[in-house]
Specification:
heterodimer, A: 502 residues, mainly alpha, 20 helices, 75% helix, globular, B: mainly alpha, two-stranded antiparallel sheet
């Protein structure tokens, strides 16, 4: 029950008027970036991060995580009312959310989405509360070799389970590492990979990269599609919300299954997008009302939403306890933690328990605040989406430029932003995954440090990565994940041959 | 029209060249073993090789599969839309060191709204100046974060 005591202490840290106001601001800003095309959770948090450099870390992380929750909710709003996913992770919500809203049940569709999202998020926070202390204590015995193995496993799972072309995933990961390596080498103090450009001495900021990759890149894609908004009107009545809430327990199987899928995908770096699709697929396969999917089936809204938020929330667990983020947004926050001078990982639980447990407590509260705020502000944010894109698009561009400049007050960053915008656009169109690139950029230096420290300990022998059962297990798992895309077609073919004529 | 096949190929070639650049750049710092552990270039060197190998792999994959050969990456119409969106952004970045970000963003919004959006001049001016003032209040007054300034701000003594 030590966790409970820590959690209660956390509530005493988080529950101040100042923090609750920040929470509400964060959620509202989050819904805004979630609703707007081109802005989403990762770059919304990146845009806000430079403004928090001077804040107290607890207040700053509450603001940023609340923005994350808000963005997850905002993305669902546009999926349901406009059939446009505000976030990649809410694409699966459009499949049934928009049809149900179109039938005239917009309130039900939104309520199903927000309530199940809230449930998923709470499940994620409970998992964090129960497991994080334990994981952190377990990780205390990690040497650099184990850490490197954990990083390796995280990237291997992107290659093996990410769903994109494995070679393209490798290019994305490698690019992230290479960009992280540019500038000052944290071990030797040498300058590396600057190619004579003074501007590269300070390195390449992952914040500028995220704003360009996710922000500008996505805007260009939106432009190219010729954005057409056909929004449905929604007036939220409390009575309807309550009636929908009363229906929720009927879907307990879908809620629990999706929540578990989400938590699993969040902790292993599968991410919310993969989780929501997987959960939708599972719901469709196992539902008794299968033929109703795609036509406005509540289970088709509940499943992806629960998984999306469960994954988004539980992605914070490995970030806090191990220093390995489970999603692109968590990666940005991890970078923020390092900028604030905190050292993410197990030591954080010992050095700054007030920070860790304050954050965890704020997650409970933040998600409740988010559900209430998002339900009460739907008409307002739906109205924002009716502003023509010829104003909205350029305005978002300005916000991205300003955000990139505030990262380090450098003109050079504006050019970097354009380059990353082009890369993001090309990556998106050609199905190169972006999240692994961001993850590699943020933890690139740490991964390299652990690798070098391990080799120093073993005097250059790679056998240190097989030297005890823990590190060997991690490495074997990672290698299995790496060869998964290669062997999977053969396994499928074998299974098909084993079970012919069905 | 730009074909998907061409775009795949060009991107993979760029990735390969990037990988080679990293590999060669890393050689400069030593990739071997020194008394204090692996030399600084070692990790980037192997990362560069990894990118190069994966890039070459994608080139071969694209050439062999030819699955994407008929597909369009960008139609002429889409290309025009993308260009008319991105060119003003590039112009904005080019002029901002001289004019400052506030003035440039107002001009940029004014331009896109009048020329591309078909708005009236007073409306566009209102939105452009309104955005710049809003940003100034939020950043310089709210968060005490300075932004790139130009001659206008100097003249106004801000």
């Amino acid at each position: 029950m030590e966790g409970l005591a820590s959690l209660l202490h956390g509530f005493s840290v988080a529950l101040t008027a100042h923090h609750i106001i920040l929470m509400m601001i964060g959620v509202l800003l989050g819904i805004l970036v979630g609703v707007l095309p081109g802005l989403g959770a990762p770059n919304g948090v990146s845009l806000l991060l430079p403004l928090t450099f001077t804040m107290d870390p607890v207040a700053a992380i509450i603001l940023l995580t609340s923005m994350y929750w808000g963005a997850l909710f905002g993305g669902s709003t546009t999926s349901i009312l406009f059939n446009i996913p505000g976030e990649p992770s809410s694409v699966a919500t459009t499949f049934d959310g928009y049809p149900l809203a179109k039938k005239g049940h917009a309130t039900e569709a939104l309520s199903y989405a927000f309530l199940s999202a809230g449930f998923g998020a709470l499940l994620g926070v409970i998992i964090i509360t129960l497991l994080s202390g334990w994981v952190a204590r377990f990780a205390m015995q990690f040497s650099p070799a184990e850490y490197f193995a954990v990083y390796f496993l995280a990237f291997a799972s992107f290659v093996g389970l990410g769903g994109a072309n494995p070679l393209k995933t490798i290019v994305a990961i490698g690019t992230g590492f290479a960009l992280a390596a540019a500038g000052m080498d944290s071990v030797s103090g040498n300058l590396r990979l600057t190619y004579g450009f003074d501007q590269l001495i300070a390195g390449i900021s992952f914040l500028v990269a995220v704003i360009g990759l996710f922000g500008l890149g996505e805007l260009i894609i939106t432009i190219e599609d010729g954005l057409r908004l056909e929004g449905l009107r929604a007036r939220i009545s409390l009575w309807q919300v309550l009636k929908t809430a009363a229906q929720m327990p009927r879907y307990w199987v879908a809620l629990l299954r999706s929540g578990l899928v989400g938590c699993w995908m969040g902790i292993t770096p599968g991410g919310p997008t993969a989780a929501s699709f997987m959960s939708y697929g599972l719901a469709k396969r196992f539902s008794r009302r299968r033929e109703n999917f795609g036509k406005g089936e509540p289970e088709g809204i509940i499943s992806p939403e629960t998984a999306d938020h469960a994954a988004g929330t539980s992605a914070m667990l490995p970030m806090l306890a191990l220093g390995v983020p489970g999603s692109a947004t968590a990666a940005v926050m991890l970078g923020g933690l390092m900028i604030w001078g905190l050292n993410p990982g197990p030591m954080l639980f010992i050095e700054r328990p007030d920070f860790v447990w304050g954050l965890i407590a704020s997650m409970y509260l933040g998600n409740v605040v988010a559900v209430i705020l998002v339900l009460s502000t739907v008409p307002f944010f739906a109205a924002i989406l009716r502003i023509p894109f010829s104003i909205m698009g350029p305005a978002i561009v300005v916000v991205c430029l300003v955000g990139a400049y505030t990262v380090g007050n450098r003109e050079f960053d504006l050019w970097l932003l354009l380059v990353f915008g082009a890369v993001g656009y090309a990556f998106k169109k050609l199905d190169y995954p972006i999240a692994p690139l961001v993850l590699a950029m943020v933890i690139g230096d740490k991964a390299e440090d652990t690798f070098r420290q391990s080799l120093i300990m073993s005097k250059g022998s790679l056998s240190i990565f097989w030297s005890n059962s823990l590190v060997a297990t991690l490495m074997v798992l990672a290698c299995l994940l790496l060869i998964l895309p290669v062997v999977l077609p053969y396994i499928r073919a074998l299974l098909r041959r084993a079970a012919p004529a069905q | 029209m730009i074909s998907r096949f061409g775009a795949e190929l060009v991107t993979a070639v760029i990735a390969t060249v990037f990988g080679l650049t990293v590999t060669l750049g890393a050689l400069e710092f030593g990739i071997g073993w020194s008394p204090s552990g692996p030399e600084p270039g070692a990790f980037p060197f192997y990362i560069g090789l990894l990118i190069t190998a994966a890039g070459l792999g994608i080139i071969i994959q694209t050439l062999v599969q030819k699955r994407s050969s008929g597909e369009a990456f960008l139609t002429a119409e889409q290309l025009r839309a993308v260009a008319s969106f991105t060119l003003p952004i590039i112009a904005l970045v080019v002029v901002s060191p001289w004019l400052g970000l506030y003035v440039s963003m107002a001009l940029y919004l004014f331009f896109t709204m009048t020329v591309q959006g078909g708005y009236r001049i007073y409306m566009a001016a209102l939105v452009g100046i309104g955005m710049a003032v809003f940003m100034y209040v939020v950043l310089e007054i709210g968060f005490k974060t300075p932004l790139l300034k130009g001659p206008l701000e100097n003249a106004l003594g801000l």
